[in-house]
């Protein structure tokens, strides 16, 4: 396989496909507790992620190297922070995958209701999805890329159809339920921001496999910004539509909100169509995430910051060891959460994964300023003003979003972040030996 095998459309589908997954199909239920106030949180999140996307676009044009956030943070802050970001980003990917799989199984329960009540059956399906997608990745990067384009097209189409035909069925009274939660409006918006941020995790996807992309300095920035704008537009319209179509009390308890909305608009056949689309969206998103999960440890291992087994690839350039290890960890996560409901698993997993990825975004945003100071030859002098105009508000937004993760998730996030330090010492000792 040629190294430069991914073009603009594949990278764009990777960016869009990784963001549009089970998140948008499951989030309306998680956000229903905050009523129409959630739309304000969506707006704040859209502004924040566009700023972050512009930062990644600039970084990818300056450093078009494999690893994405890891590569930028290592260049800006050195080996230790680079290792921590590789570790944290890797955690966010496979933990988020476990949450996305829970969302996928939730929509499968539309066809087989017993799935929602049978922990062993849902576990069996989750493990099957995990290893089935891993097998696709093991074939080749090109096969995974083609699968990504196909699923991206299939998942966007029903969303657009629902918007076009659903507007006449909107009940404006549903928007009068502003904030039914027990929290203040400010805290509700903060909580919404951490949940909605999950829907945009993946905007950096195009930066990770940079060495496999044709003309990365041009393709990655374009695909990152265009993909983020496309997804932001879809999310805002679709989220408002679901609130208008489904009563708030129903929305809060349903694991399949889009099915209810589609049934209102198209009848039983429409519900069936959207349920299939939700499953395709989730699987497509998982395929894209799986494509990235082994790329970050691969880049870190090549730099001597991860165990060297992660640097090994097959003759097709596939990091098989990283894929198998990651799939095994997802399987363990699914076993550990077997006793919880699908909605509980989804909400906890995505919040923890979002916190983890926000940490990587935080250091990535600051890396642009560090690179300007440490490697001024890579920038033009006027770039400093632009870097400040993007990095400072993006940094403030990320801190704002992190507050909404809650004490329990913050505790787990801090534990996982610092638990990596002994591994760093071990890897450095092995390299020295």
Based on the model shown, name its key terms.
433 residues; mainly alpha; Amino acid/polyamine transporter I; globular
Query: Total helix count?
Result: 19
Secondary-structure arrangement, i.e. CATH architecture: Up-down Bundle
Distance linking N and C termini: 34 Å
Quaternary structure annotation: single chain
CATH-level-4 superfamily name: Amino acid/polyamine transporter I
Instruction: Note the main sheet.
Output: none
Strand coverage percent = under 5%
Shape: globular
List unreliable stretches of 5+ residues.
none
Specify the helix fraction band: over 70%
What is the arithmetic mean of pLDDT? 82
Into how many domains do the coordinates divide? 1
What class, by secondary structure content? mainly alpha
Describe the 3D structure.
There is one protein chain. With 433 residues, the protein is mainly α. The chain has one domain: Amino acid/polyamine transporter I (Up-down Bundle), CATH 1.20.1740. The chain has helices at residues 8-19, 22-31, 38-62, 69-77, 79-108, 114-117, 119-139, 141-166, 185-200, 216-245, 248-253, 257-266, 268-293, 295-302, 320-336, 342-374, 383-403, 407-418, 421-432. Helix 1 packs across helix 13. The two termini are 34 Å apart. The mean pLDDT is 82.
Condensed summary:
The chain has one domain (8-432): Amino acid/polyamine transporter I. It has 19 helices and no strands. It has helices spanning 8-19, 22-31, 38-62, 69-77, 79-108, 114-117, 119-139, 141-166, 185-200, 216-245, 248-253, 257-266, 268-293, 295-302, 320-336, 342-374, 383-403, 407-418, 421-432.
């Amino acid at each position: 396989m040629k190294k430069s095998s991914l073009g603009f459309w594949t990278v764009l589908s990777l960016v869009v496909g990784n963001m549009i997954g089970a998140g948008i199909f499951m989030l309306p239920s998680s956000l229903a507790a905050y009523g129409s106030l959630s739309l304000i949180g969506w707006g704040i999140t859209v502004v924040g992620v566009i700023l972050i996307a512009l930062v990644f676009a600039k970084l990818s044009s300056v450093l078009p190297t494999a690893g994405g956030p890891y590569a930028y943070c290592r260049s800006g802050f050195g080996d230790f922070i680079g290792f921590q970001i590789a570790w944290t980003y890797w955690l966010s990917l496979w933990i988020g995958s476990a949450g996305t799989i829970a969302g996928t199984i939730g929509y499968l329960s539309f066809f087989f209701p017993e799935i929602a009540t049978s922990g062993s059956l849902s576990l069996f399906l989750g493990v099957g999805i995990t290893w089935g997608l891993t097998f696709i990745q093991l074939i080749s990067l090109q096969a995974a890329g083609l699968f990504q384009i196909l699923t991206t097209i299939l998942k966007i189409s029903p969303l657009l159809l629902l918007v076009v035909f659903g507007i006449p069925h909107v009940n404006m009274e549903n928007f009068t339920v502003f904030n039914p939660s027990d929290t203040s409006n400010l805290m509700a918006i903060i909580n919404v921001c951490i949940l909605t941020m999950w829907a945009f995790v993946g905007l950096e996807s195009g930066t990770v496999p940079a060495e496999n992309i044709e003309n990365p300095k041009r393709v990655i920035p374009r695909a990152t910004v265009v993909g983020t704008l496309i997804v932001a537009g879809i999310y805002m319209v679709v989220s408002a539509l679901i609130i208008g179509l489904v009563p708030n009390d129903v929305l809060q308890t349903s694991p399949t909100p889009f099915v209810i909305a589609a049934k209102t608009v198209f009848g039983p056949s429409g519900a069936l169509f959207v349920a299939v689309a939700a499953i395709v969206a989730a699987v497509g998103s998982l395929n894209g995430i799986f494509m990235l999960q082994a790329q970050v440890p691969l880049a870190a291992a090549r730099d001597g910051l991860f165990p060297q087994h992660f640097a090994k690839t097959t003759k097709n350039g596939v990091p098989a060891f990283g894929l198998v290890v990651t799939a095994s960890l997802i399987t363990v996560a699914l076993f550990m959460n077997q006793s919880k409901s699908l909605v509980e698993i989804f909400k906890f997993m995505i919040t923890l994964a979002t916190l983890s990825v926000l940490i990587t975004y935080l250091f990535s945003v600051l890396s642009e300023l560090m690179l300007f100071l440490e490697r001024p030859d890579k920038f033009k002098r006027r770039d400093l003003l632009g870097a400040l105009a993007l990095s400072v508000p993006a940094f403030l937004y990320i801190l704002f979003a992190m507050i909404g993760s809650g004490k329990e998730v913050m505790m787990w996030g801090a534990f996982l972040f610092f638990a990596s330090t002994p591994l760093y010492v071990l890897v450095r000792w092995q390299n020295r030996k």
